Fold this sequence. Notes:
Shape: rod-shaped
Structural class: alpha+beta
Helix content: 40-55%
Largest sheet: 5 strands, antiparallel
Bound molecules: adenosine-5'-triphosphate, magnesium ion
Number of helices: 17
Number of strands: 17
Strand order of the largest sheet: 2-1-5-4-3
Amino acid sequence: xxxxxxxxxxxxxxxxxxxxxxxxxxxxxxxxxxxxxxxxxxxxxxxxxxxxxxxxxxxxxxxxxxxxxxxxxxxxxxxxxxxxxxxxxxxxxxxxxxxxxxxxxxxxxxxxxxxxxxxxxxxxxxxxxxxxxxxxxxxxxxxxxxxxxxxxxxxxxxxxxxxxxxxxxxxxxxxxxxxxxxxxxxxxxxxxxxxxxxxxxxxxxxxxxxxxxxxxxxxxxxxxxxxxxxxxxxxxxxxxxxxxxxxxxxxxxxxxxxxxxxxxxxxxxxxxxxxxxxxxxxxxxxxxxxxxxxxxxxxxxxxxxxxxxxxxxxxxxxxxxxxxxxxxxxxxxxxxxxxxxxxxxxxxxxxxxxxxxxxxxxxxxxxxxxxxxxxxxxxxxxxxxxxxxxxxxxxxxxxxxxxxxxxxxxxxxxxxxxxxxxxxxxxxxxxxxxxxxxxxxxxxxxxxxxxxxxxxxxxxxxxxxxxxxxxxxxxxxxxxxxxxxxxxxxxxxxxxxxxxxxxxxxxxxxxxxxxxxxxxxxxxxxxxxxxxxxxxxxxxxxxxxxxxxxxxxxxxxxxxxxxxxxxxxxxxxxxxxxxxxxxxxxxxxx
Length: 590
Ligand SMILES: Nc1ncnc2c1ncn2[C@@H]1O[C@H](COP(=O)(O)OP(=O)(O)OP(=O)(O)O)[C@@H](O)[C@H]1O
Ligand SMILES: [Mg+2]
């Protein structure tokens, strides 16, 4: 396990402090020893000067050789040192540490460095190991001259003194340094502990920010560098948060735009993988779930879309449009605009916008058919009128019997033309919404009665039974009487036309929510399923030849539908071939 930062810092501090303390200790100890040595040296120098004076004073009174040893003894005992009196030839005359007999046996001291130096300059000093005492010694010698006696007085001090003195001082020094070391280590530990704790707080906060949690703010009580760092992290976090919020807001705005767009939007990366697809396109293509990351061809099983993407990739910048039609699950025609997405001069993907133009294309088709139908419908009666008129002019006018028939045909065809033109005009007026319906509250039953009355003769002729089902308390509707009359007569006319003799036609009405539902039911030939969706189109007839033969133009249901819708109602049909049809429509209650 990795060491915590404050442990590492503490160990580092300990090592540094220990090294420094040891250094200080060695330095102080050495300095102390030096100092002590110099003090001892100075004292010895003074003592030897004093001893010289003393010897010089006492020497003239010495008569016997043992007097020198006694003098050396007295000097040694006063100073607490070893005193030696040496003759100028090097003979030891007396020594405070030796008895007289021992003195006699001592080597000649002439060659001792301090003695030699004293003989040459009057003063000599030497530091060396004494074999006699077995320790380092400091020797100082001075020459004396008391008239009859000349010689050297030498004092010696064992340097173990220095050891004693410095040992005395070593302990308190070591103790105080040890205390200093402990205090330093403790304070280093505490400092690094608090320091690392604050660093840990910063580190935790930074990690939180990295995971996207910007809620936490760092509070450090001490305002130092770390405090500044904490403030900077807080500022940074606040800024990042507001940026992210901005970006998020823009993203959701964009998503809302994409979502509410009626156009389908698809963004693919340069490799053809789906990056984004909006709800409208998913609905067009019946795609479930989120296909992001999948291959476009997998998602939209259409080679045209794939080709569009490949072509856009291959070509230069610009918008490329194409029309594609999908047959499954339902026929849908889409106009696709594709363009490259270039960001920082690099291809980032392709944007495809899909417009559903199925209805547009259908309407275009209807319009084309309408134009063709109108000319066809007009041409037939006009050609017939022209033909009969020519025949009349060519002489048939004189043929009274036929002439009347011909004029009747011309009259009928003219009538048909007028009806046709009126129907077309009515229809285009209603369709354009220019006609004000002038709605007023009115009862349905009388309107239905009036329309049925107009067909009474035809019912009889065709032996068709009429049934009416109107409840006593049927609410009034808000409608235009003439227009609704037209709806009834068109629907009754159809029911009669497409019901063979012996059939039944039932006209009924009922309250349905806030509307009134009216139904015209027949037991006629019915309409095949696949035709039902088209019968409300202009000029559309299931069986063209038969319809025309029956005088129909195929405009009736179209007019009916538009009138009902202009009233705010709905129209619908239920039909089974050979079983009959039910046409129903609703009108708002007054
Ligand atoms: N009750 C019905 N039973 C069976 N088929 C019907 C019925 N009503 C309408 N249709 C079919 O729908 C077609 C369209 O009807 P629509 O009323 O628009 O035209 P039309 O009756 O042929 O001519 P118009 O009403 O202009 O004289 C008809 O040609 C017919 O094929
Ligand atoms: Mg009709």
